[in-house]
Every structure is written in structure tokens, then in C-alpha cells.
Amino acid sequence: MSTNKHWLITNFDQTQPDQDVIERYMRVIFRPVRDYAPSDASFKLRIENRGLLHRGTFEVRSEQRMFVSTCYDNDIYSLAEKLKKDLIWQFESWKQTRFLDVAI
Q: How far is it, in rounded angstroms, from Cα 31 to Cα 68?
């Protein structure tokens, strides 16, 4: 697990007010995602402004697997919570079934 404060690459399609505050918030809110992910994973978050909605796409890539979550919300902080919840669900599902192919 990296302790680098820039472990999460965050891209915005438009400049956001208080963008560095949002980026710091995202690193904190997504820390549990980093803990659930494969150890060799890289993380990329893209936030796009779609009129009144924000569209968030979070990609987690590892050597053998890729996880992606895309959600919409009018509040950027609620969007982050939705993305986190979906990714943690994906990781929990993956951890329950990742060795089934080996056993067959």
C-alpha cells in the first residue's frame, strides 16, 4: 500500500471551485477502496460536469483485473459515496469468487 498522497489520479473535465479541497476529500473517502483493491492496483477518478449532474468514473486496474464504477449525482460528495459503495461491493464479490476458477 502506497503512502504517497498522490496515489489517486483525479481528473476534472472543468475546473471546479475548491478543486484541491475536493481532491483531498476524494483521497480520504476512497482510502477504503484502496484497502480492498488488489495490491498492485492503480487508481484513476474522472469527474465530468453534465449540466446539473456530475458523472464520476472510477477505474481500478491491476495486472490481472480491472474494476470500473460509473455513477451520476448532482452533488459531488454524494457521487463519491456512490462510487465508493459500488467499488467496495465489486471487490467483496471478487474476493469471494477469485479462486473458483483455480479449483475447477
A: 16
